[in-house]
Description:
Blueprint: H1 2-19, E1 34-40, E2 43-44, E3 48-50, E4 57-58, H2 60-72, E5 74-80, H3 83-92, E6 97-98, H4 106-111, E7 119-121, E8 131-133
Parallel strand pairs: 1-5, 1-6
Antiparallel strand pairs: 2-3, 3-4, 7-8
Helix pairs in contact: 1-2
Amino acid sequence: MKRFISLGMVAVIAISIFLTGCTSSTSTTPSSTLKVTVASDATWRPFEYVDEQTKAIVGFDIDLFNAIAAKEAIQPQFINVSWDPLLAGMSQGTYDAAISSITITADRQKVMLFSDPYIVSGTSGNGTKKQYYN
């Protein structure tokens, strides 16, 4: 659990640095607030999913991004996008950011920027390859 929290904090810092380069839009929000379009495939409970009652995207990843947003004066607009269009949209610059338990791979690193991983999947010591998620 301590490692999980530590990785979450590293992600908060890394995403904060990434978002510093985003531009703000012309809206009615204060000039110090940065509007960011965040894509998420909201089908990966408990990380991101659609709340049946409110129809809002919720989950650990959304809570993490909202915590970052609160510290960095960011106004996220979460968009539910299915997996393949999410990855294509990120590689083409359609979205400012994505948070959706995305496995960091060499191919994806060629077309996307990643923060430090905040979830590590797999077990060590038995030869299973660990997967790093962002």
